[in-house]
Amino acid sequence: MKSNRMLKWFLYGYLALVLIFIFAPIIFSVIFSFNSDRFPTIPLGSFTLKWYETIWQDPDVWEAARTSLIVSFSVATIATLLGFATAYTDYRYRFKLKPLYLALILLPPTIPLIIMALAMLAWFAKIGLAGTVTSIIIAHSVLTAPFAMAIIRLRLSQMDATLEAAAWNLGADQWRALRRVIVPFCRPAIVSSFCLTAAVSFDEFAIAWFISGLNKTIPVIILEIVTGNIDPQVNAIGSFVFLTSITLVVIAQVVLMTRDKKEKVNHG
Amino acid sequence: MSVSNHPTETPSPGHTPIRRRHRSDLFQQALRLPIVIWQGLFFIAPLCFLVAMSFFIVRNYRMTEAFEMKNWFKMLSRDYFWDSYGLTIGLATLATLVVTTVAFPAAYTLAFRMSEVTRRWAIFLLIIPFFTSYLVRIFSWYVILAESGVINAMLGYIELGPYVMLNTKFGTIIGYMTLTLPLVIILQTFSLANIDRRLVEAAHNLGCRPWRTIIRVVLPLAKTGFIIAAVFCFILSFGDFVSPYYLGGSKPPTLPILIVDTVKSGQQWPRAAVVAVVMMVTLFIVAFGGIAAAYRRRTA
Amino acid sequence: MADALVEFDSVVKRFGDFTAVETMNFTIDEGEFIAIMGPSGCGKTTTLRMLAGLEEPSEGEIRMQGRVMNHLPPHERDTPMVWQSLALFPFLNARENVEFGLEMRGVDAAARTKKALEWLDRLEISEFAERDINSLSGGQKQRVALARSLVTEPKILLLDEPLSALDANLVIRMQSMLTRLQRELGITFVYVTHSQSEAFAMADRVVIMSRGHIAQIGMPRDIYRAPENRFVAEFVGRNNIISGTVKSTSGKMVTIAGSLGQFKVAFGGAHQPVVGDAASFVIAADLVHLSTTKPKAGNMIECSLISEEFIGSVVTLFLEAPDGSEFKVQIQERELSDMDLKHMGRVFVSWASDRAHFIGAC
Question: Nearest residue of B to residue C77 by CA position?
Fold first, then answer.
């Protein structure tokens, strides 16, 4: 039994190392953003805010931040709408070509971003949308809708199947039952899906880089700075980006978790 | 919804009321059709156009629609293309093996040695990086792994190094791991957590030692999930241009870097399309091979 | 206790704050068929799992052939188990499942195949040897699981509600197969179940458990006719339990007075009546005499008929006693049709004093 305990601590230690590996780049990026050295290493240089000042004064960064926020917000709205409609269709209906229909919405994340980027670039050039903010929004919506679908579908599968029928029985037509029963039931999943799709869109760089033209998003700015040379500005922007995405992910998680707890209490 | 094709059949109770059938169709179509059109227009069409584009030609720096095999001959007859192809497959395979191996003890710990609550928190931690900027994380590694970076500085204290880690295959694999490790751990944990514990106990009960149980019982039961995780790892590594470019040094370039270079350095989109189509075909083969292996019935 | 194979010595098992098994003492003899029975959550499965080494006792000792087993990991014991879920390996076929235990003991391939086929043949499923586990029927799977556990020729076989997933007809057939196997092999079977009919049909001895305690150990007949306490009396069979206080004792006879009147009960055994104490006795539903006219003397209660439950040749009548409690009587259907009973009609139940069973205060 002693060897068993040693194995247990070995495994815990291993798991801790893996988590350190996964979070090291995130943590170091934040540390470096406050560090005065151009080539940060150990021991660290002095504390500074100059990288934040640089990006604060850079109009390109402000412009990109504006574009990124518009894109993320629109993408989250569209992707959640698409995700909700497909999740509900999958939940409620059976039809002949359903596997094909589901593949249509679920497959985009399995295609490498670089291929999607090239395909989107060529197609938007063809239909005359190249270089517009609209094209980024559309491309990101296609990319993130499956996440929304998965989250909302999971929520629907926890729903009592007779709830909706009860609403019909009380005289609600299908649209009203959808609005008054299904949507309220799915609200936590909808909020969650909104945050997560916004986070994915906010971080996506490959497609945005290919098709954005002059409407650069934040990740595209980062990519361009990184391609130039080593510039700790990236760490400052990076910390800001991490903060945004992690906040969105935490909100999404907390909304889903509090819902779980509440329902557990209700069920006694 | 196929509500009774036989008019004589009595509708079973609890079935969706047939009275609503007509309006139901309208409702259902209103939910379904816009999505089919949207995904057709912005997902299927771009991919089809990509395939078509590989047959277009470029004249006087302008792309013209055509159906010629020129790009295909040009790309497939070049040695550097096949060098890149071999390198990309090699690196992605290596990453898949490394990540699958590194992930397993972590997933095993999460699935078998932790309480439900701790596991949920750990999974939550593993989900975070999935939604944070991959680009910034790779740049962070770039600084950490540099010749005068954090790792070499620390190794210096114990009189080791400095080691060259940037612009090597090691660097590329670190990048691929950053991209795929959390996802693979999560997928492996789910498939391990779904194993019926009584089968593990049954193996112990029949005299199987703990280590042997992992090989003889746990892994065969988790096979499907592990293969799917590995396939995802391969797809993500195969299609990533950031790690091999910034951490691997891009000499020679991998296929995704080839696409970036070809597109960003001029109007040779059709040639990039050829690379993209070759990549897609490769991934289809790998994915279907993997899925077939994952769901294969054992032959006694 | 020369033949004791397994001894439970003051065994306690706790899961956090919850005590699953509390100070358990009993022995299992070599070659006996013992059933552990009780409602769900009584600790019977935990007891079995401790035997297999899947749980460690929190206190006390479990000894097997005199050797303390507490810390021995499951894979070093020879205590194969047949699981409620069967726990057959889905990635192995029937024969490979049976071979598993032999493989773990280092038996070479040819020998273990031979052995596995012998066992499959013995259990009459050799034709399915190479079949996928999931293509077998419930009964066939059951036999594969049995063969898998018996192939290593253990001294003891543990069975955890193995028949609960089968339909009624199959259960009867499997029961007779299990008893036959046990007689032929001469090994110890420890059989956990919540079903009284399974336990009584097969076991030499039955252990009845309630909330982590042993409520009674004994041969099925003894438990059925002489329950030691209220729990067993209620859990087993159809019994009427009547409570009151001890009024007097004389020889082997005790008089108990309660809200239903005075009754004379024979006693002998564990509980010694003390005058003035609260006490109860049990009268089995099938040992009661029923009549429409008032008996001359003896133990009797006047009741009214509430309802009847008809199961083949036997009928259970539900009566209401004067104090509002329920009284059950089981009689032959033939007898009942000779009587002229009306709903809410008056009936008299009576019994001989030596038919009632004194259980003391509990």
Answer: B207
Per-domain residue ranges for chain B? 93-249
* Secondary structure percentages of chain A, helix, strand, coil, to 5: 80, 0, 20
The phi-psi region of residue C41 (left if phi > 0; otherwise alpha if psi is between -120 and 50; otherwise beta) is left
Which residue has 């490790």 as its token pair? B181
In this prediction, residue C79 carries a pLDDT of: 92
Whether chain C has a CB inside 8 Å of the CB on B199: the answer is yes
Q: Is residue A44 part of a domain?
A: no
Selecting from A108, A114, A203 the residue whose C-beta is nearest the C-beta of B134 gives A203
- In 3D space, the residue among B42, B104, B60, B47 whose CA is nearest the CA of residue B230 turns out to be B104
Taking 80 as the threshold, does the pLDDT of residue C361 lie above it? no
Residue of A14, A41, A202, A227 to mutate, interface with B, max B Cβ within 10 Å: A41
**Closest Cα to residue A168, out of C31, B17, B295?**
B17
CA distance B184 to B220: 17
- pLDDT confidence band for C115 (50 / 70 / 90): very high
Chain A residues within 8 A of B28 when measuring between CB atoms: 89, 93
d(C-alpha B273, C-alpha B283), whole Å: 15
What are φ and ψ of residue B285, in 5° steps? Answer: -65, -45
By C-alpha distance, which of A247, A246, A113, A18 is closest to B178? A18
CA A261 to CA A254: how far, in whole Å? 10
User: Is B176 near chain A, with CB under 8 Å?
Assistant: no
Does residue B12 sit in helix, strand or coil?
coil
- By C-alpha distance, which of A10, A1, A28 is closest to A238? A28
Residue among B34, B47, B3 at smallest CA distance from A86? B34
What is the side-by-side order of every strand in the sheet holding C314-320? C289-291, C346-351, C299-311, C314-320, C326-332
CATH 1.10.3720.10 fits B93-249, yes or no: yes
Residue with tokens 């189509």: B277
- Helix, strand and coil in chain B, % to nearest 5: 75, 0, 25
pTM score: 0.85
Count: domains in chain A: 1
Residue A180, domain extent: 59-267
Tell me what ipTM this predicted complex has.
Answer: 0.89
What is the distance between the alpha carbons of residues B58 and B73, in angstroms, rounded to a whole number?
A: 14
Whether C80 and B201 lie within 8 Å, measured CB to CB:
no
B39, B138, B280: residue with CB nearest A142:
B39
| CB-count burial class (<10 Å; 0-12, 13-18, 19+) for B92 | buried
Tokens of residue C357, six digits: 């069973």
Is A48 within a domain?
A: no
Q: Do C74 and B204 make contact, defined as CB atoms within 8 angstroms?
A: yes
CB contact under 8 A, B109 and A104: no
Question: Measuring CA to CA, which residue among A153, A155, A141, A154 is closest to residue A76?
Answer: A141
C108: tokens are: 């070479």
C160 band by pLDDT with thresholds 50, 70 and 90: very high
Q: Cβ C87–B199 below 8 Å, yes or no?
A: yes
CATH of the domain at A219: 1.10.3720.10
